[in-house]
């Protein structure tokens, strides 16, 4: 059934009588009615209900926070801004980059509210592009989003393996400071594959089990972030001066420009704050999806913004000798900070929580990726789509899609055995590929607003929509160029940023497949509701 409610908005007027509107005030005991309204809206969009709707508002928010995994993600990427411009670059890149990320998140949240399906922004192409453009636009955007997510899920698995082995290495520190064990690329790849298989097993569970598990991810993340921040600041004996943490931007890139070195520091926040529509990919498993999903996206970015600044400040004060920290034989500069502050045993105990939270991020990233693959299979995008879109009768989840993505992620990580430069290029395309797929839809929504207006959902930006959309588009155009740039100069085959080549391959691959065969059969997002 369709609910008629007044809808919350951000900067806009209240709108009534929208079928996408489901009252946010509906209590948990009324979930039966919410499911009916959610199913009715999904049916109006064009899809039959196939998943069980088990995710509550709290578990949805926990999922949205966990996909960014602030403690694990900052620890995994902190070395980039630190090397580029020092601790101050890490702090201010996170602070300023989070504002622009919030603009992307708000732009996406508004569209997700109008079309809460597991296809996310890919599905929205059907409603913001002219009909004759929809097939090719959906094809390219779908591939860009999927491959960006898959590279992201693989990279998180790789980082978990790397962090876990850093913890093992931390336990072998000798009295003279040397290590009894140093992680190798072969060991990291093997560990990452084990991690990816475990995340695949978790993502194969029923939605009810996933809901009951994921609801704890964010509380653990937040509590551990606070505890570790306090512990590092208390235990680190010789802290850097505030000037190094807040004002002394250095030129560590070799480009002879502090400004450009500062820009390179945005990689950390860009890699962490992406996959904004991950929550949208769970829309068909959420209660009150048109509201709970978008609100969770918005709130998650705010939480990640605040705690990311807190962690970067703490890491900055505790960085010690920056050159020595960056060259740590542990393989992760943040792990070296923990070891310097707390020693072997306490350092391992603290680092364990970082590894665990990054593992949580891997689960949520894998879950979003598999739901995207399912949604694209539902629209006949791939060979064997009829198999990949099948739902397991016991778990009511798409197990074939889950294990197809797990296999693809494992294959990507195997590339690191032959070339770390290539795998870093693949990982580096994560944020640009996903963010470009988002802003293509956002830009089309603005450009074709008069000829193809959409009916907004309950989460609305109102008069702020255009300026927020423009900021989001401008930011993605800017940051994509920065993320494709070589991180250091002079550029060599070893330090070259191959992400731009990987991105070019994705575009050529998608368009070549389109013109050779896909355009004859693929029509874009299609309904799976069959009427007699």
Automatic annotation (TrEMBL):
Keyword tRNA processing set for record: no
Gene Ontology, cellular component aspect: membrane
A Pfam short name: AA_permease_2
InterPro entries named in the record: AA/rel_permease1, Amino_acid_permease_CS
GO biological process, one term: amino acid transport
Keywords: Membrane, Transmembrane, Transmembrane helix, Transport
Annotated protein name in UniProt: Amino-acid permease
